[in-house]
Design a protein that fits this description.
The structure holds two protein chains of two kinds. By secondary structure, chain A is α+β, with helices and mostly antiparallel strands. Chain A contains five helices and five strands, in the order ββαβββαααα. Chain A folds into two domains: about 80 residues, Ubiquitin-like (UB roll) (Roll), CATH 3.10.20.30; about 70 residues, DNA polymerase, domain 1, CATH 1.10.150. Helices cover about 35% and strands about 15% of the residues of chain A. A five-stranded mixed β-sheet of chain A has the order 2-1-5-3-4, covered by helices on one side. Among the domains of chain B are: about 190 residues, Aldehyde oxidase/xanthine dehydrogenase, a/b hammerhead (Aldehyde Oxidoreductase, domain 3), CATH 3.90.1170; about 200 residues, Aldehyde Oxidoreductase, domain 4 (2-Layer Sandwich); about 140 residues, Aldehyde oxidase/xanthine dehydrogenase, molybdopterin binding domain (Aldehyde Oxidoreductase, domain 4, 2-Layer Sandwich). In chain B, the strands form seven sheets. Chain B has a seven-stranded mixed β-sheet. Chain B has a five-stranded mixed β-sheet with strand order 7-15-14-13-8. In chain B, strand 26 and strand 27 form a beta hairpin. The chains are: A alpha+beta, B alpha+beta. At the A-B interface, helix 1, helix 2, helix 3 and helix 5 of A face helix 1 and helix 18 of B. Chain A: Pathway: Alkaloid degradation; nicotine degradation. Chain A: This is (2Fe-2S)-binding protein. Chain A: GO terms for molecular function: 2 iron, 2 sulfur cluster binding; metal ion binding; oxidoreductase activity.
Chain lengths: ~160, ~750
């Protein structure tokens, strides 16, 4: 089935089997391997990407469902000038990653939340909900919460 | 680089990490395994014919189609198991005639991609005559159902310490007994198991997320009948391991065999449901304990009896309970300690190391029993521990169970934990609530653990080298293989400090058997302790070599050449001086390498938890957790703290949420994956304080002990003790992990009932 997918700003005309997962098309067809598959049944969230700005599990979305959509992956977080996203800097600063396998999913879930709510920093419960939506087996989550909070505070300061 | 705390961070945060599944090899085939849906049964037939006709399928094989398929290599590593345990109990890589655990592979299908391979796997048919399945040691012990005809299910018996004379129990002022279940846990790294085997000429390159690349190379070479130098094992970024990624698994054997047979690249990327069914499990012990004390609360004797669930084939897990037996003594001066064990085969995937690997089972048993004894004696559990700690001046301390503890200050760790927690404040709150009929009961629990890190005798060494380049940069190589611990950051910093040069001048190469010909790997919390000490040792060799060369160059005695900040200079007037890079330019390539052996180290700590329990709902709310860990000299506080925190959360998982359960037919309850097997999420994380004390290990000049397994070892008993304290449960058997609402509700009711009867 022919679809058009915009990924990280680049448009791709693809011919995909209807059964193929968005995650597999990103990883195998487009070689964007930053999106990781951790459970393939929608629980762990490692494969979280933004689809038209909304966080989705790329293991629960068929690529054909994304026809005409705009998808953003971890590879699209860094600015065009190569400047790291505030979340990327904050994750490193707070030691919010160890093995790094779940990290792209947390980054994208947090990026979606940050973009949807400029005042995320004022809403610890919303940040907790983002952290609580994915599984990390290394960090114990608290450093991830701190990292997202840090990036949210930075975002608010730069937008004020 | 300044904006990245670890060297690993930039690539892992920008999607440029490279895990095995990310590696693109043209023409690579994906393997999908056809798995048994029964736990135990006689295999009558497997038919792969239809699978071979599926478009995109390149081949499909059962064991009958692959007569040359080697068996799964067993391991006698670290003296933990024996030849007797494995004799006659061969583990075929594909089932030959009998299925012994659910999900055991019946056939393999190779496809042009995973979709095609799974299409093919769906067409494979099999006939299995089911046999009764035994999934607990108690069910398997009587040999009514045998996994191997003519052989007992008991694969190994072991003991530590000496049998205790019955008079000790008879004469003691207090004796307590209990039974504990250490449930089966899934290590659950976020990346499941991976292998990619690429034939190139007469060699095979194997990429795998793995903790022991050299062992994998050795085992694969043996099963292919090749010299080891024809195999290169590379460990790229690895998405966690926690002990579960150090073997040559059945699927690895099949993939390597088929890659060589077909002369094509083949990979197996395990998916999560597959992993939940057939990845190795941790823990799995049924324990009985007996602890005696005199009227003053001085411990007299401790007995630990273990029936260990080792799964369907005797592998490393057969010997793991010995670790529990050796560590049975805990942090106390108990004069008589005896531990006995039976390693019992069951119809489950094999038991294997999972973060803690034998030590949590020892620590949880003694620490729960200490609280039980304190209750019996009417003593504060803190006071009972203080009276029995191995004192500071007793180290090195020989335990009755055969361990020689290197160093420790157990009371200091406990003091810091109580101070951080605010122990007296919580006791006051507990007393207040006990007077308030509307307040939920609150409990405080502590757990003072001592563990072992580094490995067992014969496996306490590591290999590595330092190489200086003409530009003055240094390449460090070693046999460790990280899975998230930040070696690329920590080890160059260690080498740079030892040499007195900027960190940026040192880089680390690990996880490639072509780069580093010998190595042991990363397990048993050993990398900082052993590989770190090895690199520090190599730095001293490098300095010696540089001084020797400079002395020759300047025609001076060596002792008149000094080393400072990456340069050699003449001691008397400093007139002659040369940097490392210039020395190499002048005198030629400079590389030092060695094998370095450390001693066993014994990290320790004290964890304290406060829980609030709702007896009507059975829910446990952890209000506060304090973990004080002592891993000797800390190389990088941020990373050790991070590991301790994550480890504590895994400890919470064992205490409250995680555990395998089974249907009557022996098949695990896993239909809904991570909705059935509950890993802690952020919602379940209490406020956690991580603190440390630092008591160096005298076994190496570096003084580091192992870090990272602390939480899995120390945290569970603290939480269970806190729940028992809240509910004032006199019978410890009522509380078995995980403390689910159902089990806590039943325990609370039974406890009330018992109190009513009294």
């Amino acid at each position: 089935m022919k679809i058009t997918l915009t990924v990280n700003g680049a448009e791709h005309a693809l011919d995909v089997e209807p059964r193929r997962l968005l995650a597999d098309v990103l990883r195998d067809d487009l070689r964007l391997t930053g999106t990781h598959l951790g459970c393939e049944h929608g629980i762990c969230g490692a494969c979280t990407v933004l689809m038209d700005g909304e966080a989705v599990r790329a293991c629960l979305v068929l690529a054909v469902q994304c026809d005409g959509s705009s998808v953003r992956t971890v590879e699209g977080l860094t600015g065009p000038d190569g400047e790291p996203h505030p979340l990327q800097r904050a994750f490193s600063a707070e030691h919010a990653l160890q093995c790094g396998f779940c990290t792209p999913g947390f980054l994208m879930a947090a990026a979606g939340a940050l973009e949807a709510d400029p005042d995320l920093a004022d809403n610890p419960e919303a940040i907790a909900a983002v952290v609580g939506s994915n599984i990390c087996r290394c960090t114990g989550y608290e450093p991830i919460r701190r990292a997202i909070t840090r990036a949210a505070q930075e975002q608010r300061e730069t937008t004020v | 680089m300044a904006q990245w705390v670890r060297r690993e961070d930039e690539r892992l945060l920008t999607g440029k990490g490279r895990y095995v599944a990310d590696i693109d090899v043209p023409g690579c085939l994906d393997a999908a395994f056809v798995r048994s849906e029964v736990a135990h049964g006689l295999l009558q037939a497997v038919d792969c014919t239809a699978a071979r006709d599926v478009p995109g399928v390149v081949g499909a094989w059962s064991a009958a189609d692959l007569p040359d398929l080697p068996r799964v290599p067993y391991t006698l590593l670290a003296g933990l198991s024996t030849e007797d345990a494995v004799a006659g109990r061969e583990w075929p890589a594909l089932v030959k005639d009998r299925v012994r655990y659910p999900g055991e592979a019946l056939a393999v299908v190779l496809g042009e991609d995973r979709y095609r391979a799974e299409d093919g796997a769906a067409e494979v048919t099999s006939t299995i005559d089911p046999l009764p399945a035994v999934v607990t040691p108690s069910a398997a012990l009587d040999d009514c159902v045998r996994l191997f005809d003519g052989l007992s299910n008991i694969a190994l018996r072991g003991e530590s310490g000496e049998p205790i004379d019955p008079s000790v129990w008879q004469d003691a002022a207090a004796v307590v007994e209990a039974r504990y279940r250490q449930q089966l846990l899934m290590p659950s790294p976020m990346e499941c198991r991976t292998i990619l085997a690429v034939p190139e000429g007469d060699r095979l390159t194997v990429w795998s997320g793995h903790q022991m690349p050299h062992r994998l190379r050795r085992e694969l070479a043996a099963l292919l009948g090749w010299p080891t130098d024809r195999i290169r094992v590379v460990v790229p970024d690895t998405g966690g391991a926690f002990g579960s990624k150090s073997a040559a698994f059945p699927e690895f054997v099949v993939v390597a065999h088929l890659a060589v047979k077909l002369g094509r690249p083949v990979r197996w990327i395990e998916d999560r449901l597959e992993s939940m069914l057939v990845a190795t499990r941790g823990r799995g012990q049924d324990q009985t304990v007996r602890l005696a004390a005199d009227a003053e609360g001085r411990l007299l004797a401790y007995e630990l009896t273990i029936d260990a669930d080792i799964g369907a084939y005797p592998h490393l897990g057969a010997g793991l309970p010995m670790q529990t037996a050796w560590m049975a003594t805990g942090a106390y001066t108990t004069p008589r300690v005896h531990a006995t064990l039976r390693s019992v085969l069951t119809n489950t995937m094999v038991t294997y190391p999972y973060r803690g690997a034998g030590r949590p089972e020892a620590a949880i048993a003694i620490e729960r029993t200490m609280d039980l004894l304190a209750r019996r004696l009417g003593l504060d559990p803190i006071e009972l521990r203080r009276r029995n700690f191995i004192p500071l001046d007793a180290f090195p301390y020989e335990t009755p169970t055969g361990r020689r503890y290197d160093s420790g200050n157990y009371a200091a760790a406990l003091d810091l934990a109580l101070e951080t927690l605010g122990y007296e404040k919580w006791r006051a709150e507990q007393a207040r609530r006990r007077e308030d009929p509307d307040a939920l009961p609150l409990g405080i629990g502590v757990s003072c653990y001592v563990e072992r890190s580094g490995g067992e005798p014969g496996g306490l060494h590591e290999f590595g080298s330092l190489e200086v380049h003409e530009d003055g940069t240094v390449t460090a190589r070693c046999g460790a293989a990280p899975s998230g611990q930040g070696h690329e950051t920590v080890f160059p910093a260690l080498v740079a400090k030892a040499l007195g040069i900027p960190e940026a001048q040192v880089r680390l190469v690990e996880g490639d058997t072509d780069e580093q010909p010998e190595g042991l790997g990363s397990f048993a919390s050993r990398s900082a302790q052993v590989a770190g000490a090895m690199l520090q040792h190599a730095a001293t060799l490098l300095i010696d070599e540089a001084r020797t060369r400079a002395a020759e160059l300047w025609d001076l005695p060596v002792d008149e050449v000094q080393w400072a900040d990456g340069t050699v200079h003449a001691a008397h007037d400093g007139s002659a001086a040369t940097s490392l890079g210039d020395l190499v330019k002048t005198t030629g390539p400079l590389r030092v390498e060695d094998r370095y052996a450390a001693g066993m180290a014994f990290p320790f700590g004290a964890h304290a938890a406060v829980t609030e329990v709702d007896p009507d709902l059975g829910t446990v709310n952890v209000l506060r957790l304090v973990a004080v860990d002592d891993c000797g000299v800390v190389l990088n506080p941020t990373m050790v703290h991070g590991q301790a925190f994550g480890s504590a959360v895994q400890g919470i998982g064992q205490a409250l949420y995680e555990g395998m359960t089974f249907h009557d037919d022996g098949v695990p309850h896993l239909a809904s994956g991570f909705l059935d097997y509950l890993l802690p999420t952020f919602t379940e994380i209490p406020p956690i304080d991580i603190r440390d004390t630092r008591t160096p290990s005298p076994t190496t000049p570096l003084g580091a002990k192992g870090a990272g397994e602390s939480g899995c070892i120390g945290t569970p008993a603290a939480i269970v003790n806190a729940v028992a304290d809240a509910l004032r449960i006199a019978d410890p058997d009522l509380l078995q992990m995980p403390l689910t609402p159902d089990s806590v509700w039943r325990a609370a009711r039974a406890s009330r009932h018992q109190e009513g009867v009294r």
